[in-house]
Amino acid sequence: MTRNRERLAWVILLISFTLCVSLAVGVPLGVRQFLRTATRAQPTLLQPQHGTPGLQRGGRGDLIALRDPTWDVPAGSLLVTDSAAQALLTFYAPASESEVVATVQVYGDTRLRIRSARSPRFGLSPLPHRVGLQVESGRVRITISPADGRETTAQLYTPHLTAVLTAGSYEARVYGSLTEFIVREGHAEVTSAGGQSVSLNDAQRTIAQAGPAPLETLPAARNLLVNGDFRQPLEVGWETYVIEAGTVQTTTVAGRPAAHFFREGIGHAEVGIRQTLNYDVRDFTSLIFHLSVMVQGQSLPGCGSAGSECPIIVRIDYQDIHGGDRSWYHGFYSVPRAETDYLYWWSDQIPIQTWTSYDSENLMQSDAPPALIKSITIYASGHSFDALVTEVELLAQE
């Protein structure tokens, strides 16, 4: 009897000791693991740019016609655009809603699902910000940025491939039977649905098709411009000029570097930046101008009474294949024009205080295509104006 009691006492003592050691070791380890792995949702802003995108929140219910910006974009949400609609998704670091983790430009005829958007809850965590996107069809342009002192990674899913993206700029175009994936700047690890893998760096692309076809590393369209993302000072690649008054300088808006055109006053003024190229483009079959633009304010309606005072105007000076000197223009404004004001056909009204992406038609398919690109000028014109541009690219493809 006594021996049984002693055995029971030893069992209780050993169990108690084991529990004590387990708690002493396990609780700190569990707390440490929680601090390192706990995450929270990233604030996500969805802004309609053109037309009326459709949003299915959380992947449940009906598509809602979206006419105004919304922060109610939970994981699982499906964004759908028709041919006349475009939208911009912006993911923010939870600790500081002024720092952007990623932006996604959604073009027309696109179905995009947000699979996840999570960031570490605590500063002790070594994990990056993470974004998961699924492009079912259509075209998107993705910009990934470090934020809040932490790296960002994104996973992109299409019917034909999976890509892991680091900081940089990327584009995906999903057609019925294939996906074209382009690295404008950055690095991506791409795996096809058939298990083939490829690493892509700056100015490279690949095409993934249904089935076991291998992935190839192909050259992407070449950007003929320097410092079009304005991550370096304006003096790198650009020269500035001022007529009457105004300023242009690099800035950062919500984590996005840009060139900022500003003037507050009365009477005509103009301020711009110009990049001289003198580049022979006759060997290219495609030449497309791309930029992102935002008008934060303007005093004149439209582009002024004569149609020449837009908050942002792009001019490409070139020599055509017949030897003639020509200029190509495109302007952007946000305040509606007055009924009596003239407006050039090449001017677009864009939503105010919203980044809008623009891609030109293929300039090589115009009536008199360019043979030599002389220079590109971006300028603001008017009385008072406040506008920004970034992602300025002249993309040439052989």
Helix percent band: under 10%
Report the count of strand segments: 29
As for the number of domains, it is 2
Oligomer: single chain
Structural class: mainly beta
* Number of helices, where a helix is a run of at least 4 consecutive DSSP H or I residues: 1
Form type: elongated
Strand content: over 45%
Radius of gyration: 26 Å
CATH uppermost class of the largest domain:
Mainly Beta
> Would you list the SSEs in sequence order as H and E?
HEEEEEEEEEEEEEEEEEEEEEEEEEEEEE
The mean pLDDT is 89
Main beta-sheet annotation: 17 strands, mixed
CATH architecture of the largest domain: Sandwich
CATH topology of the largest domain: Jelly Rolls
Describe the structure.
The chain is 9% helix and 52% strand. The chain is mainly beta and 398 residues long. Strand 16 and strand 17 form a beta hairpin.
Q: What attributes does this structure have?
A:
mainly beta; Jelly Rolls; 2 domains; 17-stranded mixed β-sheet
List the helices and strands and how they pair.
Elements (H helix, E strand, L loop, with lengths): L1 H36 L1 E3 L2 E7 L3 E3 L7 E2 L12 E4 L4 E8 L2 E11 L3 E11 L8 E16 L7 E6 L3 E5 L2 E7 L3 E8 L2 E5 L4 E4 L3 E6 L8 E2 L2 E2 L15 E5 L3 E7 L2 E8 L5 E12 L5 E13 L13 E9 L4 E9 L13 E3 L6 E4 L10 E13 L2 E13 L1
Parallel strand pairs: 9-10, 25-26
Antiparallel strand pairs: 1-8, 2-6, 3-4, 3-5, 5-8, 6-7, 7-9, 8-9, 9-12, 10-11, 11-14, 12-13, 13-16, 14-15, 16-17, 18-29, 19-22, 20-21, 21-29, 22-28, 23-27, 23-29, 24-25, 24-28
